[in-house]
Amino acid sequence: MSDVVELDARRLLCPMPVIRLQDCINQQAPGTRVEITCTDPGTLHDIPTWCRLNGHRVLATTEQQDDYIFLVHKDADAS
Q: CB under 8 Å to 41, separation ≥6 — which residues?
């Protein structure tokens, strides 16, 4: 099982959480999981949509107080 890369995108507004996720995913090997923590409620729509369009999967979405936490699996090279 691969490690989980943690990414903090708190206090960033659209489109920055998705851009940070994209930059992080592009540096990872297929099979890597990225856990991104956001505070922008727009990410509840934006991150799953970005993943679907780019061939990745959201494995889990969790809300903890003001944080939205996504576990994203890199399924393919985003090249």
A: 68
CATH number of the domain to which 10 belongs: 3.30.110.40
Q: Which of 14, 24, 38, 51 is catalytic?
A: 14
Instruction: Give this prediction's pTM.
Output: 0.91
Q: Quick check: is 14 catalytic?
A: yes
The pLDDT value recorded for residue 7 is: 98
Q: Does residue 39 lie in a domain region?
A: yes
Helices (H), 1-79: 16-26, 43-54
Number of domains into which the chain is organized:
1
Do the beta carbons of residue 25 and residue 74 sit within 8 Å? yes
Inside any domain, residue 58 = yes
